[in-house]
């Protein structure tokens, strides 16, 4: 009887914790009725193979950055060796960051030199305003990536790409080409 009572108490505590934790998460993701209709339209558009910008995360434009050329529309360019290092804030995310860096060619990961790559669980602050998920300050002086996106490697590739290129026209970033990687929204 005592064991049964302990199990029921433990189950009740678990249910209690879930009930009170879930509304906090749900509130953060709650959308208005107008946005719900936009989301329904976006879902239909995505099923038709079109990416919905309203559901994506914008990437930032660092203040004072010089105008960069557009990325090429053909195959990924290869650059001569360049370096970066992954900071401790990105622990566990090294693989996707390396994948993003290697998209651009001969990337050399080091223990402490080259472009520092940092990670955050929220939005990136100080990068052209608003809620942005990535920023590359000074064409490789510092990169900050948010874990809010679904394709972290693509975000890393996009931000590394700002070492050489500006944003492509509006649209959702994808892996099709350097031009597509440099689109300004992570969908």
From TrEMBL:
Annotated keywords: Signal
Domain of life: Bacteria
Provenance organism: Streptomyces abyssalis
Region (Disordered): 54-74
Signal peptide: 1-28
Name of the molecule in the record: Peptidase M12B domain-containing protein
């Amino acid at each position: 009887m005592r064991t049964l009572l302990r199990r029921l108490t433990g189950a009740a505590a678990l249910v209690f914790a879930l009930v009170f934790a879930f509304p906090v998460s749900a509130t953060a993701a709650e959308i208005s009725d107008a946005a719900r209709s936009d989301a329904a339209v976006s879902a239909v558009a995505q099923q038709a193979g079109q990416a919905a910008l309203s559901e994506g995360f914008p990437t930032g434009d660092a203040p004072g950055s010089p105008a960069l050329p557009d990325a090429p529309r053909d195959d990924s360019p290869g650059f001569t060796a360049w370096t970066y290092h992954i900071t401790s804030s990105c622990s566990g995310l090294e693989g996707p960051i390396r994948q993003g860096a290697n998209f651009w060619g001969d990337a050399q990961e080091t223990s402490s030199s080259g472009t520092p790559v940092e990670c955050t669980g929220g939005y990136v602050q100080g990068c052209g305003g608003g809620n942005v998920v990535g920023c590359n300050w000074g064409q490789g002086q510092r990169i900050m990536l948010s874990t809010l996106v679904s394709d972290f490697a693509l975000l890393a590739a996009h931000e590394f790409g700002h070492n050489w290129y500006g944003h492509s026209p509006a649209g959702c970033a994808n892996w099709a080409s350097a031009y597509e990687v440099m689109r300004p929204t992570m969908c």
